[in-house]
Specification:
Length: 151
């Protein structure tokens, strides 16, 4: 994954990362308060701060891993793309299901059109994958993939 793609993932998840930033700052302030209260050694606190930071970074990267799929040719399927962009990049799906999901908002109960496109695609690593792309109101909201031989 090059830096431009990583920057794109981070930009799409700005809300999540701002929440994560606040969470890390609060955790660090709690750790500092415990340090002051309990009188722990400075070196121990540095290790604890580093472990909290690495733990948070690991889970933030794991949270964005399911939001995209890289094709064999290097093209990237990501959340936020339109249905036509996905079809242009990945081709025709194996199956396409259409659902109407009713959302109760009071008197104007508009439904959401949800489409689930299923693909068998060759990924950039490890052969074929079963990729499920969920589209709501012509925008991709979820991409999940599982290696085809691991069913």
């Amino acid at each position: 994954m090059n830096l431009l793609n990583l920057f794109g993932i981070i930009k799409r998840n700005e809300c999540f990362f701002s929440f994560l930033n606040i969470l890390v700052r609060n955790l660090l302030s709690i750790i500092r308060a415990l340090h002051t209260f309990l009188g722990m050694e400075y070196l121990y606190m540095k290790k604890l701060n580093l472990s909290v930071l690495l733990f948070t970074l690991f889970f933030s990267l794991a949270a964005t891993a399911n939001s995209s799929f890289r094709l064999e040719n290097g093209k990237l399927l990501t959340i936020g793309k339109s249905k036509s962009e996905i079809i242009m990049l990945a081709g025709s799906p194996i199956s396409a299901d259409v659902e109407k999901v009713a959302i109760d908002k009071g008197q104007d109960g508009d439904s959401v059109k949800r489409e689930v496109l299923t693909y068998k695609l060759k990924g950039s690593i490890g052969g074929f994958y079963l990729v499920v792309v969920t589209i709501e109101n012509n925008r991709v909201v979820s991409i999940t993939s599982k290696q085809y031989e691991r069913f």
